[in-house]
């Protein structure tokens, strides 16, 4: 079921986890990962960059497949976690910011749970497009539905959530042609969001007492899964693995609806 490499646990079904360092693939991540893997399963190895890569879990799995993988994240903590996943079998280049010499050198650009943190989301995506070759693809995710704003959004340093039309408009205004948008996560992620909001409401209150800034919260959000990590032994157990597989299957009939709590968009550089 699992194999260990120091601080890293490689789960046969969930991929890498670092429970001792408070990062695990939480249920919503696993629902999103299932869709990402399906979109990328027929993509031949190419040069890929993940902007806001966090612990680089997805990148490390792509590196195993032979992708030339580059991860960028401004969070020192996230890059520290990501370095635990790098090996000869999983080579990933990690940097704190984009490098000018990388422009028009990537075939695929990934960015998961990032644009909701950015005041100028369109401007950022327009800048990202410069790093893709003509015809290159963008695959990104973001939380759905502003009316579901909760304490977990505030803890994570979000500035917005998206409706489908607003997301399509933002990606299009950035110079991409949207090919597909899925709303993933229903029904499990909807239930987990309520529970997560309650848990992170308590965490947020502690952060407020220490006067943590929004930028600090944003930096922590990609690398801190302290709430979920408490339950890793349960999440990685065989019954829950079977349940998660069922939930990944169950979300598929609802991807074209807006019932889930996250969007996954695939677009092409014009």
UniProtKB/TrEMBL annotation:
* Alphabetically ordered keywords of this record: Methyltransferase, Transferase
| Pfam families registered for this protein in UniProt | Methyltransf_23 (PF13489)
What InterPro entries does UniProt report for this protein, alphabetically?
A: SAM-dependent_MTases_sf
Q: Which parts pass through the membrane?
A: none
GO terms (molecular function) for this protein are:
methyltransferase activity
User: CDD domains of this UniProt entry?
Assistant: AdoMet_MTases (cd02440)
Query: Is Transferase set as a keyword in this record?
Result: yes
Q: Which GO terms describe its biological process?
A: methylation
PANTHER family listed in its UniProt record: TRANS-ACONITATE 2-METHYLTRANSFERASE-RELATED
Protein name in the entry? Methyltransferase family protein
Tell me the organism: Silicimonas algicola
